[in-house]
Amino acid sequence: MVPLSYYVALSAILFALGALGVLTRRNTIIIFMSIELMLNSANLLFVAFARSFGDVSGQIFVFFVMAVAAAEVAVGLALIVAVFRNKHTINIDEVSGLKG
Amino acid sequence: MLYSMDDMFNILPTVIVVAWATALILVEAFLPKKYKFITIWLTVLGLVVALVAAINQHGIEAEAFNGMLVVDGFSSFLNILILGSGILAVALAVGYNKRFGFDRGEYYIMMMFSIAGTMLMSSAADLIVIFLALELMSIPLYIMAAFYRGNVNSEEAGMKYFLLGAFAGGFILYGIGFVYGATGATGLSQVVTAINGGVDSPTFLLVGAALILIGLGFKVAAVPFHMWTPDVYEGSPTPATAYMAVGAKVGGFAALIRIFVVAFPTLSTDLVPILWGLVALTLVVGNLVAIAQKNIKRMLAYSSISHAGFILMAFLPYGDAAVFKSSVAAALFYLLAFAITSFGSWGVVIALEKSEGKGLLLEDYAGLGRKYPALGVAMLIFMLSFTGIPPTIGFAGKFLLFKAVMEGGYYGLAILGVLTSLFSAYYYLRLVIIMFMKSGEPNIVSDRWVTLVTASSAVATVVLFMVSTPLFAWAEQAVLKLF
After folding, report:
1. A40 touches chain B (CB under 8 A)
2. At A26, which helix (H) or strand (E)?
3. What is the span of the domain harbouring residue B352?
4. Does A94 touch chain B (CB under 8 A)?
5. Where would I find the beta strands (DSSP E) of B223-280?
6. Taking the domains of chain A in order of start, what are their residue ranges?
7. Span A4-95: which CATH code?
8. In order along chain B (483 residues), what is the average pLDDT of each group of 10 residues?
């Protein structure tokens, strides 16, 4: 059996990749994908811990997270489309009229 | 059966808001165009009914849904606060949304869902419910921020808020994952039991708590997680800004106080230095950068960041069993003071705002005090309250806050708080000077609901100062149910 620490390490790597992606990428869709990667790394953590504890509440949490992620996709993509219609770009550096 | 009607009855105010908002979506869809205004009245009616139910619940202490939700003084105080805020936010939005051509009923329904999320956050006693409530609170706020369709700034604000809000949600979720890994449970009562029994991996627990703190720090706009705040506040439709300034703070602090006071008092020795730095940074950066702002919406955004710092300050002695009760009460009282003052000042901003972002610069306020003395005096009261000068509720809030912090033994931070309050006097009173001393010809848009909100907030800011002692006693009753 794969030890728990491997799962924790993998999820930490995925989370760090996601966070780095959010901070370094300029394309809104890719930033959004990186956020999804962060959520899924947390899901991996929950499933791994739930398996090692023999407890289902962590696995149930994952279902809720998936539902929330789907709701976020619905709203987030709609917002990105609205910005694209107006500005014809989804580059986060070019969508920066608000400054001060 | 797992659930009974008692569970539903215990969280009646939340059930009313959720059910009402869900029904209202359908009602709105079938209303003919001429009668769309009914949605607004139904929203207010729903909020009032829920408010009555929340007031009625005062003093009840109960659990619902197998300990997933807790009803206590803390949750009923915050429920009353957020429902009252919701009613004010509807009043601010009605005329504005019509004036700018986006008076759609969905706005009010989204606000109701966000209110339901905030209410759930104040009574959530399980990390799963806290995450779900957080998203229920946040997702409608993203929509409200971008509600002015076709306006580049509003859409940009919505997108920025969405990206950073979802980013923060990722941190909170990952933190919850580590807490679950350390304790094997998500319910706060089981988490406490596990921590008291000694956890195998205290590092996991500490990392989890720190990640949750970062995520909620984003939500309440604490420095260095505040970058989104000025942009989102500036770009969003002003009534949406007014609501999110209060709603997101109430929800974020509700979850922060509930999680840390109930579940992590043992971690306070490790977390207090981090919190100390967070509070100091928030106070200094919020107040200093606000001085440089020329746009009133950005100025109020930085002001709200600095007030988040003040509320966080009350949170510092949270692990100290002797003081935490009065410090939580001080935080709740400060939230109430901030909410009233904030709605009033945003009401003044709405009265002066013209299309295409005109009328938002500080110099557009020149002459306001002479041409419209009532409005000028109202804004003066709000600025005094933000600064913390008597006779306003803001003074009572700051006084109680500093007192609680000193009782906790954080004298350095209390001094820093007083000093940054002095800095803040500069930019708050500068606006007053512009309003009364400089000459100009500002034009306000008359809107009776906005006038009503501004006037009643101004009166409440002064009157509630007079009765701040019983009010604080009420906040002190708003204790958390500990496990």
Report:
1. no
2. none
3. 5-476
4. no
5. none
6. 4-95
7. 1.10.287.3510
8. 78 95 94 90 96 90 88 92 96 93 92 96 94 96 93 93 95 96 92 88 92 95 92 95 95 93 88 92 94 94 95 86 86 95 96 86 91 94 94 94 90 93 93 92 89 96 92 82 68
